[in-house]
Predict the structure.
Amino acid sequence: MEGPVKVTTVFELTKKRAAQHTPEMAQEITGIHADIIRQVARKFASAKPSMIYAGYRASKYLHGDLLQRALFLLLSITGNTGKEGGGLTITNLAKDDAVFPFALSNPAAAFRVATLSRWDYVHANMKEHNADAFGEELADEMDKYFQEICLLEQPFIKDPDKIVKDLITESIATLGENISVGRYIRYVVGESNNGQQ
């Protein structure tokens, strides 16, 4: 090729593409008034730094990666990547290295995060979604691991044909009282409480 070549930046191309998606277009899709969308966008763009707390759920669903890419795009065009207090976090903590101190200082809150993950798996029919996305074999393998770590889905040690959830349901029917699990400790047969055989 001879002569000058006209080029532009990815940022300029992104701005042109983003301009095609007006707040009015978003209002049609979301039902959120265009003025509110503008107000939130301007507030986010003017805050320095800005961080998006996304949580874990977005990455659990098919095409959740597209949502996360859109979040990263928003952070990029507003200059909020690579800065202390900016960026995208899925731990809902201001710093990535705060996860373990958070879990250790507040086990109840950390347990709630894990509980939400399990709730998602059960109530969003994730085994079926995993089968659609990854195939039956992988979905079965993931489900096997899920069943092993969830108390209510584990076999009752005195009757392996019954799961703990069935035992609780039967006990509620027999006693006429509501029963809930407040907490539990999981041991593997042959494992001591310090993790040694």
Observations:
- The longest helix spans residues 107-123.
- The longest strand covers residues 159-163.
- Strands lie at 51-53, 87-89, 155-156, 159-163.
